[in-house]
Amino acid sequence: MKKIITSRTVFTVIATAIVCGLLSFAPAEKSYKIGDKVADFSLKNVENGKMVSLYSLPGATKGVIVMFTCNHCPFAKKYEQRIMDLDKKYAALGFPVLAISPNDPSIAPDDSYDNLAARAKEKNYSFPYAFDETQGVAKAFGAAKTPHAFLVAKEGDKWVLKYMGGIDDNPDEPENVKKPYLANAIDAVLAGKPVAVTEAKAIGCTIKWKQS
Questions:
Q1: Does pTM surpass 0.85?
Q2: In the chain, what is the greatest distance between 2 CA atoms, to the nearest angstrom?
Q3: Which fold has domain 7-206?
Q4: Whose CA, among 17, 29, 38, 72, lies 20 to 30 Å from 208?
């Protein structure tokens, strides 16, 4: 059956492109590569105002799923339930989610601290939702999109980057995902095996960087 492309569909695609691509001048700075040791960082958890850090995240016995996401992005909204499901499955296995919103609220008002807090409360996230106000953590990881996933695994006293990129290959149809990149990477680490696909294209909106 052929899909009928209507003017409304075209408008939706264009509107999404505008929202996702507005002011996306990512800074050219050195960022982590696969196999690099990841330094600790601390950010404010919007749910309770307390600081949360990578190394001391509760339940992170194996590592952390660092997820750059936000409120406003259509793709972040599409992946929201999947991020919640990832935490539900893997936090119990030692890989909890740490969600981080890196956007400049002056560009994306929906991603202000107060709005992030409201979203976390509304959805009753089981994971911390942190605000990267300086955008320093996003720059260190080389994050470019929302959502953008990074898998950090504990190896002795080191925290090592094992995977970076998209959550999977199908933002629109979770039931038709063929390549669950992030889940496959976590499963490989848990099994003590090499991660087959260490990088995959992140599908999402560009991070809204500060302009001054």
A1: yes
A2: 56
A3: Glutaredoxin (3.40.30)
A4: 38
